[in-house]
Amino acid sequence: MTTATHLFHSLPPIVSFPTATVPAANSSAGTRYQTTSLHVVSASRRSRDDDYHATLKALNSKCRFPRKSLGQHYMLNSEINEQLVRAANIEEGHVVLEIGPGTGSLTNVLINSGATVLAIEKDPHMVALVRERFESTDRFKVLHEDFVKCHIRSHISPMLESRKALNESLLRAKVVSNLPFNISTDVIKLLLPMGDIFSEVVLLLQEETAVRLVESSLRTSEYRPINIFVNFYSEPEYNFSVPRTNFFPQPNVDAAVVTFKLKQAPDYPSVASTKSFFSMVNSAFNGKRKMLRRSLQHICPSNEIERALGDAGLSTTSRPEELTLDDFVKLHNMIARV
């Protein structure tokens, strides 16, 4: 059996999907976020067949199979790529960072929408593939780097400098990516504090992760430091879900698209030090079932923690899963004064 034939036999069946609605958010979270109506995307058989063939042809041209170690799952539905780009409101002249372009299916939609794309790709074979595919355009550049280790600011800033005289909306770049699921948290932690150079981060994530990041409900096991982090630096919005059958190879979970509208420094919650603030938040959740007067006693004595809780308008028996972002900000600032 040839490589190409084997790939064709590995494909999931073509099915259609119903529409659905995003469940109402839990307002007890005390955090600001938005949800939109959930549109489960499906495509015509002709469109999906074209995508199957294009993806397989591209992979076969480099004798490549998706690598599990890199979390590679290739998008087979061009309509989803188009919705992803629409969610990011890409216009002529935008600079877009794409992490993990793969065979370039999303890249192609971005370029056709008028964007200049900087792609970061870890797999050298995929670097060669997309470099060859887009060699005729001057609005594409790919770097062979591991995104979580690269200095993205040094790559993006020069591209933005050349646009200073243009429309103000073009002064910050955007991120639009179909991320490998296994690096999504690391990528989010790196990108969200960069509101000075990025205005929006639009990512295709694992469905469970997407919901957890947007619906930061208090008093649940899913409420974690990452929820505080996300809402400190951005306003997250759930866009739409993507069934697992749209990928090759098919993952074990569905996906979803989330938009993070990044705040700039003047809009961050006012804390004495972001470093000490997140250190306190992480310490609080390390003893999640413990009262804060115990889990934070390495910062200052328990009686001073109790006093700070009271001054912040919180119960002296508070636990971390009961505090909103604003509550943590108040508590941190009270402790900083001690």
TrEMBL record:
List the molecular function annotations (GO) for this entry. Answer: RNA binding; rRNA (adenine-N6,N6-)-dimethyltransferase activity
Domain of life where this protein originates: Eukaryota
Q: Does the keyword Methyltransferase apply?
A: yes
| Keywords for the protein's UniProt record, in alphabetical order | Methyltransferase, RNA-binding, rRNA processing, S-adenosyl-L-methionine, Transferase
Coiled-coil zones: none
Residues given in the record as S-adenosyl-L-methionine binding sites: 73, 75, 100, 121, 146, 178
Which Gene3D superfamilies does the UniProt entry name for this protein? Ribosomal RNA adenine dimethylase-like, domain 2 (1.10.8.100), Vaccinia Virus protein VP39 (3.40.50.150)
PROSITE patterns registered for this protein in UniProt: RRNA_A_DIMETH, SAM_RNA_A_N6_MT
Keyword Cytoplasm belongs to the record: no
Q: List the Pfam families hit by this protein, alphabetically.
A: RrnaAD (PF00398)
Domain (Ribosomal RNA adenine methylase transferase N-terminal): give its ranges.
Answer: 80-264
Name of the protein: rRNA adenine N(6)-methyltransferase
The organism named in the record is Hibiscus trionum (Flower of an hour)
**Organism classification:** Eukaryota, Viridiplantae, Streptophyta, Embryophyta, Tracheophyta
